[in-house]
Structures are given as structure tokens and as C-alpha cells.
UniProtKB/TrEMBL annotation:
Domain Yip1 intervals: 469-640
Keywords: Membrane, Transmembrane, Transmembrane helix
Subcellular location: Membrane
Record's keyword annotation contains Membrane: yes
SUPFAM superfamilies assigned: 3-carboxy-cis,cis-mucoante lactonizing enzyme (SSF75011)
Keyword Membrane: yes
CDD domains the UniProt entry points to: NHL
Name recorded for this polypeptide: Yip1 domain-containing protein
GO annotations of cellular component type: membrane
């Protein structure tokens, strides 16, 4: 009897409470979405559910098209836009209508002194209230001339920073966030989005044509961390999330596949974004993806999915609260145990505690979790264990961290061995000079000269050695290839084979810091086929065009000349690969410059080959180059169309055969 009374009292209490946490689908036993994270090589992989749907916060009075919420000290402040009010709600279910004299409140923020700032889009005002709802101040359109007469002032979102500075996102504010001081004086625009010009606009500008100017996109939403760094979200195709320091310089950009409409930052600087497609994405302070999950509800009222999500925030336990404008509800998503472990590791690291054991436990739960490897690497790096950090950075595909660790290893090596290396190099130089001097008197190199002479008597070796002459006398080399037959199909084919082999070697052997190839998806056969097809396509196209445009070169001349034109690429690639293992990202310009030199040098030799082999003047050469490229493109298009037609024919024939078999069996 006592138990029954207790149950009845509990039910009666629930009925009286105006605010409840209740699940829409009581039969739902798991999250209705997959959770993704970053795996090895930067691939997106599934992982354990990070946040479980825990319930829906529903108000007895009813929200109407709410636009914004803010959580401070586990108290939720809601901009109830449709009802023109601000509602205050704690996690125990106690609520009150704090402010009700508004027009269209779309943004809310609570500062360190618990003063409430409201962006009222309808009144085009920013208001400041105390915790009793008493109006303390209001901030209308700035009157400073620097603000501009035509600049719109339609506040939609607001945050406050140190010294009471307000950052206001305004509708149509293409110059950036509106920055006001504590008294409402205009300080300037903050966090302006950059504009990018298309090639057409750049060309029009070069010809001084008057086109419509590219206007920056206005920030959509914003957040601020404890250090005063401001984060903005923008409707764009890339870099939708930006982090600005106090000087309004971009220090971090994040790109989402979907458009983020809201953003918040937790105590240890994790970044949470909410997209218009209901996707919640969590990053660490460095911009590394931790978790991604969520989605839109298709009318089934599934807990954990959303209809029109407008804002997101977190409580002191890092549980998520998502505001849904369409359902007029706030969904709560509770951290899973796995997420708690990840957060504890991040929080420890943020506090200077390098808990390797914590992250190793995460790896035991999910060995593919890249962030754990990256965190262990950072901890090893802080502990000066650079070799161990190197391995973990590689697993996490963190090239910057790998580069920093390698720089330290290289620095220590140079401190220990640079003197010895210099002595050896000087000794080698002196030895070679001495041997050269001795050779002049006693001809000690004569056996080597005789051996070299015998080698050059072998025709194939003599033909292959011609490649080195390309570096000194390319015009003479092309003349010898064309007039004196100093090259053959065999030697040229070997050079083409070396060209393909050196490209494949580059893919597999280039240092990790500069190697962005996903070896798991890399197909050796496909790579060889593409390179071989490209060679054949160019040689055939150039021969076809030169035949029609009075070129003097035969097919064999073009084939051989092209092979020997690749000399810089073939000879320089291997040293570049070796050098890449001694460089860091600080010296990336050296690696890039060497790659560009070998590429453009070979390209220049190919163009020179076309001129010398066909005996063209400049006009004829340019015409030949253009037509060769055009024919190459047309051949690719024709082959592709033939492939499509052949594939359709194949499917048609297979379909007929299957139907005949079915009819025969019936």
C-alpha cells in the first residue's frame, strides 16, 4: 500500500510540473544516427555513439518559433521569438518568463556578471537586463560617422567579451560583426569575411570592365570562448566556421559539408556546430574532428533528430541542448561513457596534464580513433619523447605534429653529428682533389676510363647515356635523335618505363610530411595505365597534327624525343624523394620548388622538342601545341563515349540473354 501511495504522489507531482524531460518515442532504445570520427589517414569512420538522446525540454506555457538559447551555470535562457519574450529555465524544471516586452528577440547572451543581452531584430535594438528582468540599457543604431549611413543595423545574435565589449551579428552586415563598447559606442567592424573573385571577375577587372562588386557574406551566428576569441558561422561553400583573435585576425577555419547555423564553445575549448541539416559536429581546440552525428526528422518524431534546428549549447556536464524552431522544443543529448573519457583526456591536456593512459584506454575501446593517437603524440612531444611522438603523429595523419617532432629529432642529430659530417665532407673533397692531381701524373683512373669506354660500345648503354646530354645541349641532342638515330625505340621505351617507375616510387617513398596519397585507395595498375595512356595519347596526337601541318618529324622522332625530354623529371625525382626525408614543413618551399623545377624543365624540353623535331617557327609551334592538346581532349571524349555505348550494348545483350534463359526455364 505504501508503494502505491508513493507512486501516486510521484505521478501527481509530474502532472503539476510545467517543465519535463520526456522522450517522444518511449520505445527508442538507441540513437537514430551513426556517429563519425576521423580515422587513420584522415578518413571518416564510424565510432561509438557519442551522445544519446535523453529527453525533450517542453514548457507548459509553450514556446513559439524560438530562435536562440544560452546556458550559463546550468540555467537555460531562451529567446522565445514568437511569444516576444525571454524565458529562464533551470535543469530542475523551475522556469519564469523573465522579459516580455520585446518585439522579435532572436539572440541572447549572459555575461560574466549575469547581465542578459538581447538582440531584438524587430526593434533593431540591443537590450541589457539584470536577472530580475529590469532594463539596464539599450543600444540602437550607432551614430558614429565611421559606421556609415547606409550600413544596416538589424541585430540578430550577440555575445559579449572582456571589458563589456559587444559583438553583434546583424542581418545584411556584410562588413562583419558590429563591435560596440560597454556604453554602446561603435568600435568598428570585426571579423569581416573575405571575398574571392572568380577567374571571370579577375579577367574583367584586368580589362577594366565594370562588373557588380563581390560582396562579403554577413556572419550568421557567433560564439566566444573564455579567452575572448570570437567564432563565427557563415553560409558559404568552405571555411564556414572561423576563429578570430582579439585583433580580428583569422587563426582557425573549419569547413563543413552542410551549412552550420549555430556554434558554441565548452570550457576546454571544444567547438560544437549545428547545421541546417541537423548535423552536430564537435571539434577539439585545434580544429580536429572528434564526433559528427545527427540528422533531420522525416516526420516520425524520432528523438535525436530535428526538424528546423536553430541553436545549440552545453551545460556544465557537457551535455548538449538543441533548440528546434519547428517543434518548439529543446532536445537534450547526454554524453556517453566513451565521450566522457575523450573529454577527460582533452580537459587534462588543456590543464597541462598529459594523461597517456587515459588515451590508451580510448584506443582500447576504438583502435581507429585518430584523436587519441594525436593526443598521445602531443603528450609524448611535451614529454620530449620525439621518436615515440613521431609514430603516433603518423598514425593520426597529423603532418604538422609529425614535422615538429622530426624537426626536434633532426636538431638533436645535427647537434651531435653535424661537425663529424662537415669533417667527412671536407675530407672527401680534399681526397677527390688529391686523386685528381695524382691522376694527372700517374693516370690512376685509366682502368675506369677503359671500362667506361667498353660500356659505351654497347649500343643500348650509349643510347641511354644520351639522356645526360639533355641537361647541357638539348638542341644538339634532338638533332642527333632526329638526324643521326642516336636513340632507339628500345632506349626510349626504357626511359618511359623509368618515368612511370619513378612516379610510382614517389607515391610510395616520399616522406610522410609531403605525401598526401591515400595508399589504401591507390591502385598501382590504374596509375601505370594512366601514365602509359597519357604518353601514347600525346605522341599519337602530336604526330597526327604534325602530319597535317607540314611537320618534319616522323612518329619515331616524336616518340624518342618525348622520352628524352623527360630527362629532368627522371633524374631529379629520386634525389627529391631522398631529400624529402630530411625536410620539415618549415622547408616546404624547397620541396615544392624542386618539384616545380623538374616538371617545368621537362615541359619546356617537350616544347623545344616539338620545335626542333618538326622544324617549326614560333607561330607554327604555338598552333601545333594548341591543336595537339585539342586532339588529346577529343580522343578522350570519343573513347569515353564509345565506352558508354559499349557498356549499354553489353547490358542490353545481357538483359536479352537473361530473359531468354528465364523464358526457357519457365
Amino acid at each position: 500500500m505504501k508503494k502505491i501511495v508513493i507512486i501516486l504522489i510521484g505521478v501527481f507531482t509530474l502532472l503539476l510540473v510545467n517543465v519535463q524531460l520526456s522522450a517522444v518515442n518511449v520505445n527508442q532504445t538507441s540513437a537514430p544516427y551513426e556517429t563519425y570520427t576521423t580515422g587513420p589517414n584522415g578518413r571518416r569512420i564510424t565510432t561509438q555513439t557519442a551522445y544519446e538522446p535523453a529527453g525533450i525540454v517542453s514548457l507548459g506555457l509553450g514556446l513559439s518559433s524560438p530562435e536562440d538559447l544560452y546556458i550559463k551555470d546550468d540555467v537555460i535562457y531562451i529567446a522565445d521569438t514568437g511569444n516576444k519574450r525571454i524565458v529562464k529555465l533551470d535543469l530542475n524544471g523551475n522556469f519564469e518568463v523573465l522579459i516580455s516586452s520585446l518585439n522579435q528577440p532572436t539572440g541572447i547572451h549572459v555575461d560574466e556578471f549575469n547581465q542578459i543581452y538581447v538582440a531584438d531584430k524587430g526593434n533593431q535594438m540591443v537590450y541589457k537586463y539584470d536577472q530580475t528582468g529590469l532594463l539596464l540599457d539599450s543600444f540602437g543604431r550607432p551614430t558614429e560617422p565611421i559606421f556609415g549611413q547606409n550600413s544596416p543595423y538589424v541585430p540578430t545574435k550577440i555575445v559579449t567579451g572582456p571589458r563589456g565589449i559587444m559583438y553583434v551579428a546583424g542581418e545584411g552586415s556584410t562588413s562583419g560583426l558590429i563591435q560596440l563598447n560597454y556604453a554602446g559606442d561603435f568600435l568598428g567592424f570585426f571579423g569581416t569575411n573575405e571575398t574571392t573573385k572568380t577567374w571571370y571577375q579577375q579577367l574583367a577587372e584586368w580589362f577594366s570592365l565594370d562588373l557588380a562588386k563581390t560582396v562579403p557574406t554577413s556572419p550568421l551566428n557567433l560564439a566566444i570562448d573564455e579567452k575572448g576569441s570570437v567564432f563565427t558561422t557563415t553560409l558559404a561553400t568552405s571555411s564556414q566556421v572561423k576563429k578570430f583573435n582579439i585583433a580580428s585576425n583569422v587563426v582557425l577555419t573549419l569547413s563543413n559539408q552542410s551549412q552550420p547555423v549555430a556554434i558554441t564553445i565548452n570550457a576546454f575549448n571544444n567547438i560544437y556546430t549545428l547545421s541546417d541539416e541537423g548535423i552536430i559536429t564537435e571539434y577539439d581546440a585545434y580544429g580536429n574532428l572528434i564526433f559528427e552525428f545527427g540528422g533531420l526528422d522525416q516526420g516520425n518524431r524520432v528523438l535525436g533528430l530535428f526538424v528546423n534546428p536553430t541553436d545549440i549549447d552545453i551545460d556544465s556536464q557537457n551535455n548538449l541542448y538543441v533548440l528546434d524552431k519547428a517543434t518548439n522544443q529543446i532536445q537534450m543529448l547526454q554524453r556517453a561513457e566513451f565521450t566522457m573519457m575523450v573529454h577527460q583526456g582533452l580537459e587534462d591536456f588543456n590543464n597541462g596534464i598529459y594523461s597517456i593512459e587515459q588515451w590508451e584506454e580510448v584506443l582500447r575501446m576504438n583502435s581507429m580513433f585518430a584523436l587519441a593517437n594525436s593526443a598521445i603524440a602531443r603528450a609524448r612531444f611535451r614529454n620530449l619523447e620525439y621518436n615515440e611522438a613521431l609514430d603516433y603523429y603518423r598514425i593520426a595523419a597529423d603532418r604538422q605534429g609529425y614535422s615538429d617532432s622530426f624537426w626536434q629529432i633532426r636538431y638533436e642529430w645535427m647537434q651531435n653529428y653535424l661537425g663529424i659530417v662537415l669533417i667527412l665532407l671536407i675530407s672527401l673533397f680534399v681526397l677527390l682533389k688529391a686523386l685528381k692531381f695524382i691522376d694527372k701524373k700517374y693516370h690512376i683512373y685509366d682502368p675506369l676510363r677503359s671500362y667506361r669506354k667498353r660500356l659505351l660500345e654497347v649500343r643500348l648503354i650509349r643510347e641511354l647515356s644520351l639522356i645526360f646530354k639533355m641537361f647541357r645541349h638539348p638542341v644538339d641532342t634532338f638533332y642527333e635523335i632526329k638526324r643521326n638515330n642516336k636513340a632507339s625505340y628500345l632506349s626510349s621505351t626504357i626511359l618511359f618505363g623509368l618515368f612511370i617507375a619513378i612516379n610510382v616510387t614517389s607515391v610510395y617513398q616520399t616522406a610522410f610530411v609531403f605525401n598526401y596519397t591515400n595508399l589504401e585507395a591507390y591502385s598501382l595498375i590504374r596509375e601505370v595505365a594512366i601514365l602509359a595512356s597519357l604518353i601514347v595519347l600525346f605522341v599519337f596526337s602530336n604526330y597526327l597534327i604534325s602530319t597535317l601541318s607540314s611537320g618534319e618529324g616522323f612518329f619515331k622522332d616524336i616518340y624518342r624525343g618525348t622520352a628524352y625530354s623527360l630527362a629532368p623529371y627522371i633524374i631529379l625525382t629520386l634525389p627529391v624523394i631522398i631529400l624529402s626525408h630530411g625536410l620539415t614543413l618549415n622547408e616546404v618551399f624547397i620541396y615544392s620548388a624542386l618539384n616545380q623545377i623538374k616538371f617545368y624543365w621537362s615541359l619546356g624540353l617537350i616544347i623545344l622538342m616539338m620545335k626542333e623535331i618538326h622544324n617549326y617557327n614560333l607561330k607554327a609551334l604555338l598552333k601545333n601545341i594548341f591543336l595537339t592538346l585539342f586532339v588529346m581532349v577529343m580522343i578522350v571524349v570519343i573513347v569515353f563515349l564509345v565506352y558508354l555505348l559499349a557498356n549499354q550494348l553489353y547490358e542490353y545483350v545481357v538483359g536479352i540473354i537473361r530473359e531468354v534463359i528465364v523464358r526457357a526455364s519457365s
